């Protein structure tokens, strides 16, 4: 049995803004307003990420991922009690896989 994901979710999943910077166009609206947060445990190299567009307000949540080498990472300890470090700067509608 294979897991089918929507084509737009795949586009978001392969956006990888930590490698390409904020110049990547949004897969949903083509605007160059992409932001991300990666939260995780550096020692275990495991965490999760939020990627969203500040223009259209769409994005995705990626869970249980290896931490990207080029990403700015917020540790679980840093995030505890400081939701402003991890939440998007706007209301985001997360696309379902």
Task: Outline the secondary-structure elements.
Layout: H1 7-13, H2 17-20, E1 34-41, E2 46-53, E3 58-66, E4 73-75, H3 76-79, E5 93-94
State the gist of this model:
By secondary structure, this protein is of the alpha/beta class. It contains three helices and five strands, in the order ααββββαβ.
Structural commentary:
- A hairpin with a 4-residue loop joins β1 and β2 (46-53).
- The longest helix is centred in the N-terminal third of the chain and has 7 residues, at 7-13.
- It is globular and about 35 Å long.
- It has 97 residues and is of the alpha/beta class.
- The protein starts with 6 loop residues before the first helix and ends with a strand.
- 16% of the residues are buried.
- It has helices spanning 7-13, 17-20, 76-79; strands at residues 34-41, 46-53, 58-66, 73-75, 93-94.
- It is built from three helices and five strands, in the order ααββββαβ.
- A five-stranded mixed beta sheet has the order 4-1-2-3-5.
